[in-house]
């Protein structure tokens, strides 16, 4: 379930430095990371530099029980707004998770554009802004959205094992558009920005 993956990631973030002293941040018997069937060329924990991009995005919130449907609906709204603005996509769509809880999340469904639209969006929900930038760890998930739990569990273990401090947001970049791709065929790059 999507709730568990995000909770695991944010637990790892908390353990990596959000208010827990060093001794408390260690677990007594850490479990080994789950086995992930990833092609050998897929990065797992590769340090990268995210470049700030101009994005057209929709801010929203959703419940984990319907996360994928919520995100796909948000991207449909962004694509519709981009058509009306005459804005052209200049990169893979992304979800920027800005807050999470056990039951839900806040996010930005964003699409990079080469330049900001000449006129402002007509919808109050659609905005133009910048994507996160800076040092991050890159991970790849292949398969359905619901199957990402194991990937996020491995990410949490990776952060904890290396005592890495992550920012309190993360980003999923869809290498296959979630609006047009069957869910089981998704390829998602997950970026965890570091402090």
User: Helix tally?
Assistant: 3
User: How many E strands?
Assistant: 8
Biggest sheet record: 8 strands, antiparallel
Low-confidence stretches: 10-38
General form: globular
- Class in CATH? Alpha Beta
Can you say what the CATH homologous superfamily is? Regulatory factor, effector binding domain
| Helix-residue proportion | 10-25%
Helix-strand category: alpha+beta
Order of helices and strands: HEEHEEEEHEE
Name the average pLDDT. Answer: 83
Kindly, what is the distance between the CA atoms of the first and last residues, rounded to a whole number of angstroms?
A: 27 Å
Based on CA atoms alone, the radius of gyration comes out at: 17 Å
The spatial strand order of the largest sheet comes to 1-6-8-7-3-4-2-5
Q: What would the CATH topology be?
A: Multidrug-efflux Transporter 1 Regulator Bmrr, Chain A
The total number of structural domains is: 1
The portion of residues forming beta strands comes to 25-35%
| Secondary-structure arrangement, i.e. CATH architecture | Alpha-Beta Barrel
